[in-house]
């Protein structure tokens, strides 16, 4: 096992550090920026179904569901087809309205999650086209779908998903770019710009990993918290959910992810000097909005830890702590911003003496209901 961990103390840390490579592997052979091409056979094969779809429904559980939410923002933004994201367990039991004009994207690291598999079978029986995004080759969900694209993240051993999540977002980005270009909803110049930027993401993830020492330092400060609130807007709202889930899963600190603007409809009542608020605030057209959300937290004496870009001034000047990450296109920023949140959870869990790779009561793959 020590050999498998490749010198890291835990599988989770090893898998966090593998992300530049796993994202590169997921892009390899698919993203060809010099030729302005994205190769995805599964999409070519079902091109008509995708381009004429009335809507796209994304199903998944846990972290895979969070990736689906990022996919919703990407596909609606670039492809202009309505997207719904559903917990597989809810979808399968709510007598959903599905027909042959729908495309269902099933996301699953293991490809064995019982609820996701059942949702796939149900949608298939109702005539929908099913596209799978799985990590495990030949898994049950992969076999049940009409087409798909594997995430080439390699085996993920840590129960809390890390590299599978960023690989899933990478596949969704490729899909949204390819479909948007094919549908004509994405201009050639924006398409090319995004292709080039996506190609640089593995390098930017590598650079982001340099925040490890600061997350370790911050973990000392935040490790005894009883609660934490994660806030993000737009593409980074799902990142807030995923950050909170990571903390809950491995450190057993109660955490909630919220869309930053929704805070005033409830969670703001919880904010006092004991409440850490982790704000995901890269440069984007919603930056000013999130800045005012941060001011609202500050006015109530909440402790603010902000994930910001290197040249940030406004939020950085009022936050208690910051973690700086490289700037990228808003649509790819969930990949970058997730990295410090994974590391923060890891270090907090470690300091609290938790079993990072095998948290209590959790399973890597939930093959029963
Ligand atoms: C379990 C795992 C999570 C995972 C979820 C969905 O709860 O602990 O890490 O996100 O199942 O798994 P899947 O294999 O379908 O992505």
Automatic annotation (TrEMBL):
Protein location: Cytoplasm
Gene Ontology terms, MF aspect: carbohydrate derivative binding; glutamine-fructose-6-phosphate transaminase (isomerizing) activity
Keywords in alphabetical order: Aminotransferase, Cytoplasm, Glutamine amidotransferase, Repeat, Transferase
Domain of life of the organism encoding this protein: Bacteria
Domain (SIS): residue spans on this chain: 46-185, 218-359
Gene Ontology CC terms, in alphabetical order: cytosol
EC identifiers of the protein: 2.6.1.16
Catalytic activity: D-fructose 6-phosphate + L-glutamine = D-glucosamine 6-phosphate + L-glutamate
Active site (record annotation): 364
GO BP: any one term: amino sugar biosynthetic process
Subunit structure: Homodimer.
Job of this protein: Catalyzes the first step in hexosamine metabolism, converting fructose-6P into glucosamine-6P using glutamine as a nitrogen source.
Protein name stated in the entry: Glutamine--fructose-6-phosphate aminotransferase [isomerizing]
Gene coding for it: glmS
Residues shown, of full length: 246 to 614 of 614
């Amino acid at each position: 096992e020590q050999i498998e961990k490749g010198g890291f103390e835990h599988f989770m840390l090893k898998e966090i550090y593998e992300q530049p490579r796993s994202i590169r592997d997921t892009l390899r052979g698919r993203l060809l920026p010099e030729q302005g091409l994205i190769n995805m056979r599964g999409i070519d094969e079902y091109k008509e179904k995708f381009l004429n779809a009335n809507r796209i429904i994304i199903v998944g559980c846990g972290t895979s569901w969070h990736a689906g939410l990022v996919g919703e923002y990407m596909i609606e933004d670039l492809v202009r087809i309505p997207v719904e994201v559903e917990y597989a367990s809810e979808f399968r039991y709510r007598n959903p309205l599905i027909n042959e004009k729908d495309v269902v994207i099933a996301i699953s690291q293991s490809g064995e999650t019982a609820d996701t598999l059942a949702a796939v079978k149900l949608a298939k029986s109702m005539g929908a086209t099913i596209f799978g995004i799985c990590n495990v080759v030949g898994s049950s969900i992969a076999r049940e779908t009409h087409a798909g694209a594997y995430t080439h993240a390699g085996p993920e051993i840590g129960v809390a998903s890390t590299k599978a999540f960023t690989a899933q977002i990478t596949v969704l980005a490729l899909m949204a770019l390819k479909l948007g270009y094919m549908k004509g909803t994405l201009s050639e110049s924006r398409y090319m710009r995004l292709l080039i930027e996506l190609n640089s993401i593995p390098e930017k993830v590598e650079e982001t990993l340099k925040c490890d020492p600061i997350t370790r330092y911050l973990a000392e400060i935040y490790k005894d918290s009883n609660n934490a609130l994660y806030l993000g807007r737009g593409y980074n709202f799902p990142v807030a959910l995923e950050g909170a889930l990571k903390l809950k899963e491995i450190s057993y600190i109660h955490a909630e992810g919220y869309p930053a603007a929704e805070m005033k409809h409830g969670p703001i009542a919880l904010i006092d000097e004991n409440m850490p608020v982790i704000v995901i605030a890269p440069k984007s057209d919603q930056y000013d909005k999130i800045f005012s959300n941060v001011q609202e937290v500050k006015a109530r004496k909440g402790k603010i830890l902000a994930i910001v870009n290197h040249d940030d001034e406004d939020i950085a000047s009022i936050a208690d702590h910051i973690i700086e990450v490289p700037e990228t296109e808003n649509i790819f920023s969930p990949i970058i911003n997730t990295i410090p949140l994974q590391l923060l959870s890891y270090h907090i869990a470690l300091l609290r003496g938790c079993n990072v790779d095998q948290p209590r009561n959790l399973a890597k793959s939930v093959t029963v209901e």
